[in-house]
Design goal:
The protein is of the alpha+beta class. It has 4 helices and 11 strands, in the order αβαβαββαβββββββ. It has a single domain (24-231), classed as Glutaredoxin. The chain has helices at residues 2-14, 40-49, 77-90, 113-124, and strands at residues 26-32, 55-61, 99-102, 106-109, 130-137, 140-147, 155-169, 179-195, 201-206, 213-218, 225-231. A 4-stranded mixed β-sheet has the order 2-1-3-4, with helices on both faces. Strands 8-7-10-11 form a 4-stranded antiparallel β-sheet, with helices on one face. The radius of gyration is 18 Å and the shape is globular.
Length: 232
């Protein structure tokens, strides 16, 4: 029992937000499904990550489990396409849920909290490649990016919108009878532009509604996420 308690304490400490603000947060993408019985623990873990100020967790619900009895209310085909693209880059021949991708580079089974914590710590310690600034004034978001190191390949600038909290009663399928909470559910993902990293990148865009936004700068592939900024 003492060992179990110690492991639980270590897990809690690993997911506790640090006291300082993080200028280069780590992006954790969770590929999940309401129709997957293995996903609720990972969904709960993402809620814990959402409390941190050095991590930007994003829930990308996929649609490929919809056939087993419950259609995921938040699923989008584009999320599964992104997951397949990650798998192809990594040389994997299958995709699964729950899966977490850390900064576009490392993957871990979504419920393995300690492995995830180790990956987050490793990415937090890497030097910033891009200085990214994003601010919001009403419905307009302004973005500025500057390379701190030479950029070897074109980068893509993304804008993501998400809803911080959802609560759903699952009536059919593997999770039938459960009422589940979801954090940072992505409902919009678009490209703002391509950038070669040479000159300063500046742009602005309009958004509708009060939902938060995330700006991502990512290498092609999809590859490494080299900068991210949360805009509330």
């Amino acid at each position: 029992m003492k060992l179990i308690a110690a492991a639980a304490m270590a897990l809690c400490m690993s997911l506790t937000p640090p006291a300082f603000a993080q200028s280069n947060p780590v992006v954790v993408e969770l590929f999940t499904s309401q129709g997957c019985s293995s996903c609720p623990p990972a969904d709960k873990l993402l809620q814990e990550l959402a409390r941190r100020n050095d991590v930007i967790p994003l829930a990308l619900h996929v649609d490929y489990w919809d056939y087993i009895g419950w259609k995921d209310l938040f699923a989008r085909p584009q999320h599964a396409e992104r997951q397949r693209a990650y798998a192809q880059v990594a040389g994997r021949h299958m995709i699964y849920t729950p899966q977490m991708i850390v900064n576009g580079q490392d993957d871990v089974v979504g419920a393995r909290a300690m492995e995830l914590a180790d990956l987050i710590d490793a990415h937090r310690s890497t030097a910033a490649v891009i200085r990214l600034q994003a601010s919001r004034n009403g419905e307009r978001i302004s973005i500025r990016a500057q390379a701190l190191q030479p950029v070897q390949e074109p980068l893509t600038i993304f804008l993501i919108r998400f809803t911080p909290q959802h609560r759903t009663e699952i009536k059919r399928g593997e999770n039938a009878g459960q009422v589940l909470n979801y954090a940072n559910v992505v409902d919009d993902w678009r490209i703002l532009g391509q950038w070669d990293g040479k000159a300063v990148f500046e742009t602005s865009t309009t958004v509708e509604g009060p939902r938060p936004a995330v700006v991502l700068v990512q290498k092609p592939g999809p590859g490494a996420i080299v900068a991210a900024e949360l805009v509330k």
